[in-house]
Amino acid sequence: MSWQQCVALQQPQYEDLAELSRALGELSQLPPLVTSWEVLALKQALAEAQEGKRFLLQGGDCAESFADCTSPIISNRLKVLLQMSLVLVHGLKQPVLRVGRFAGQYAKPRSADTETHDGVTLPSFRGDVVNGPDFTAAARRPDPQRLIRGHAHSALTMNFVRALVDGGFADLHHPEYWDLAWVEHSPLAAEYRRMVAGIGDSLRFMETLAGPIAGFTRVDFFTSHEALLLHYEQALTRQVPRHRGWFNLSTHFPWIGMRTAALDGAHVEYFRGIRNPIAVKVGPSVTPELLLPLIDALNPEDEPGRLTLIHRMGHASIAEKLPPLLDAVRRAGRRVLWVADPMHGNTENTSIGYKTRRFDNIRSELDQAFDIHAAAGTHLGGVHLELTGEDVTECMGGARDLSEADLQRAYKSMVDPRLNYEQSLELAMLIVRKSGGLT
């Protein structure tokens, strides 16, 4: 609870504190969403990624909505992550650690506490776990009961994902089950189908020699979200039998966003006290003088798998801003996992008012990230992406060269633009090509 003595940014202003207290009391008695042994298993896998033995694929919605907690949307989101991981495993020739940005990504930071339309000022929309998107006083009122609904929708999502994975949805013997409609018309369809056929042939050959390989019928899957609402996270932070310390059991892998990463802030103080593997977003304003003390505060024992740094610089800034950070961390001998987020530094607004990202800029930042790490003698161990399994038109470019005019066709995001299923898979193939795995 020491974080409550620090400045907590990006928190909703609830009108009725007694109502908030009752909701948090109820939340604290509800079952956790994940288990401590899952959390520790992820930490071990992240330690292996630090050593270059795994590659982290972290992806999902910018902000989940309660309305999207449906079986088609959840299964399509899982499909595209499985498809991407299939491409990466095949091309990189190493295990892929799959972490979804879902089952809790219901809150979003905002640049201003309020917004004004036609002379009316109301609280900003901060995600479904806080308030509603409609521009009315009733919808925009921060409602503590939404915290309970957020837990319920997270639990429903987790339950369905676990059921799919345990039921063989991720069976490598049948990757054709993961097909989405794009494979019928995408320029990448033939390449993807060749890859699927090659994996099937390899599995059949291995099982002819060694018999059925049960491990290929399921995969490990973990969840993550930005741990923004500290009262919610605190209510789901628990001690467990036979393990020391405290675990955030709302998710396996919480992260601190750029807006809340101040060394003396409440979020850093809260994260210091939990045993989960954690991540921090690192933007172009971060210097070595800011980053090294933050690493020391969050991972004072230099614990393997504990700390991931997700750099998000923008394609125009990464060549200048990233190398000094890599050099400082390497010289200091700190143990971290470096991950690239090529999405958030490349957001722009179009002439007709859409927030978008250009696929070429996303690709450029990712390409540069691999080159910069190679030149620095460090290892880029993963990617962090905002994506969806739906046929949206939110990011321009890609294999079918979506234009500004195309954005109007299927722009569905409530906050930030996401890669659609086709662009997501294309990016996975580009990662493999960059690593020399595809020709």
From TrEMBL:
EC number, UniProt record: 2.5.1.54
Taxonomy, superkingdom: Bacteria
Catalytic activity field: D-erythrose 4-phosphate + phosphoenolpyruvate + H2O = 7-phospho-2-dehydro-3-deoxy-D-arabino-heptonate + phosphate
SUPFAM superfamilies reported for this sequence: Aldolase (SSF51569)
NCBIfam families in the cross-refs: DAHP_synth_II
Swiss-Prot/TrEMBL keywords: Transferase
Record protein name field: Phospho-2-dehydro-3-deoxyheptonate aldolase
Pfam families named in the record: DAHP_synth_2
Chain coiled-coil ranges: none
PANTHER family in the record: PHOSPHO-2-DEHYDRO-3-DEOXYHEPTONATE ALDOLASE, PHOSPHO-2-DEHYDRO-3-DEOXYHEPTONATE ALDOLASE 1, 2
Family: Belongs to the class-II DAHP synthase family.
